[in-house]
Known about the structure:
This protein is of the alpha/beta class. The protein is built from six helices and five strands; from the N terminus they run E-H-E-H-H-E-H-E-H-E-H.
Amino acid sequence: MHVHLVVAHPEKSSFNYALHCVAIETLSGMGIRYSESNLYADSFNPVAGHDDVIGFPDGESFNLAKAQRFALENNAFIRQIKHEQNKLKECDVLVLQFPLWWWSFPAILKGWIDRVLTSGFAYGEGATLKAKKVMYSITTGGAKNQSELDYYQAKIDGLYQDVFAFMGWEIIPPFIAHGVQQKSHQQRLDILASYTAHIQKKLTLAQS
């Protein structure tokens, strides 16, 4: 098994990034190969557009999906996109590590989705990327009651369905850390330990 980790948090001292570090430690301990994309450290450009494609015909109206298919057919994606797509080709499981901001992906991660999971490559007729397994690891601002927890869960389920279920990928249940800012040091350590157990359990099942 090969796991690709995409982390989308700007602060390496954050609890969110600590979860990413736990994933690396756990995978290493399990003997599972991994690769990673640290979007902020890599200065990943989240803006999809003309600059993603080399040689798109001048004078032709720009359509993102059309341009992406042109790039795929003519090996015309810029290096950054090719590099990210090659990582996806090689992995079996994708793990996205991110904070839930305004009930959605951070802009830099949404941009990664827009620019890397391209038409003809990840979705659409004749898509060349083999369907993978995907898991989210998320931190949130916290929930006061079960109703708010259910609301968070519905939003996160939607983020799965609207992207990866649409592409036909197998969804692994997410790991969600609610309200870590309000937790004690020991509680935070307990959450990190729980994430280790989550990875061990879910990826062992994913291998079977």
